[in-house]
Structure formats: structure tokens, C-alpha cells
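Running this now, will post back.
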Amino acid sequence: MDRDQFLGRVAAAVRTADLPPPSVVWDRLPETDVEDLVMLFRQRAIDVNAVVHGPMGKHGAPRAVAGIAAGHRSRSFVAWDDLPSSGVSSALTAAGLERVVDRMDNENRLDHQLEYRDLDLGITGAVAGLAESGSVILSHGPGRARMVSLIPEVHVALLDVANMHWTLSEWAHRNPNAAIETANLVVVTGPSRTGDIEMKLNLGVHGPRHVHIVLIK
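Update: finished.
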């Protein structure tokens, strides 16, 4: 079959194809118990090799993050400007860690990016948690660089349990403008995982090897 004939058949199929009916969109979503969602989230996150801490009060989060840093013998960190708990960066610098500033210098972009190579710890917030998969959603923008959750060996995400949802579709339904109000959205489900040609799973090849989620109430 030549190219024109093949493309003609594709065009004819597209013109006569019947699309399936759209999914039903509820006007109201059923209410869910936050404690049940947190329990499910914890189990699903552990299943994908994440470590879950809490729930704890906002004042306990800096101490928890400092403990995570000590456990991994971290010496440097990079953090978002706006975290769900204040005092995290101060606690890490007080513990002797060096903070690397994540603001991009447009004149020296390559030099700036190379500074991330040896970073030990990255701390972000999370706009939502997804109980069904144990995932967290990160929303990027000014003061919330993407590299913070991608380059360091250890990623710590701080999540307010009030932002826990059952599924990604439920979160999107409750936050219909989320995608257009941010520079980038990422769903993180445990550490980076890569399967090689021998079907062996490797962690940390294309992202963090360790993911910690600190739940805040």
C-alpha cells in the first residue's frame, strides 16, 4: 500500500469514527473522611518506597526534616521559598547544612545548573496528596523551582493533610483552574524508578533515590 492510499484510509476512518460518550461529571463529589484518606495514603506511599512521617503539627516539621537530613548525612540543601511549615530552612542551617539558592541567573545558567550536581537534599511543599496512589502533586513557579525535587539525592515533600484527595480526577474536579494557574504540575509517586534490559528495577537513576513525605495537620 502506498503512502497516499494509506493516508486516505486513515482520513476516511477519522471522518466516520464514533467517539465514546464522555464520562459523567458529578456536580458534587462525595465527602471523604480525612483520617481514612491519610491511612490509605500512608500505605500506598510505603508500597512505592516512600517514607511517610506524621501527621504532625507545623512546629514539629522543622525538627522532622532536620532528622531526615541527619539520617542521610546531608551537607547541603535547596528549598522552596513558601513551605507549609516555616522554620525548616532555619533548622537545617542551624544543623550545619549549607543552603544553595535556587534562583536562576540568566547570564550564567550553565554554571548555576552545575551547582546542583552535588546537592544532598531538596525540600518542597505539595499542593495535594493522592491517597489512591500515595502520590504528591507539586506546583512550580517563582520560588518553587523544578530542580529542587529532581536533582538532589533526597526529596522531602511537606503536605498539609487538609489537601489530601482520593484520586487525581477528584483533585482536578475540585481545582479546575490549577493547571492554568501554574508554570508546571508534577505528580510524584515515590523515588525515581527505572527498569533496565534485564527487567531489574533501579531507584534514583533519573531523579531522587529517596522520597520522604512529611504530613502536617
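The chain has one domain: 33-216. More later if anyone needs it.
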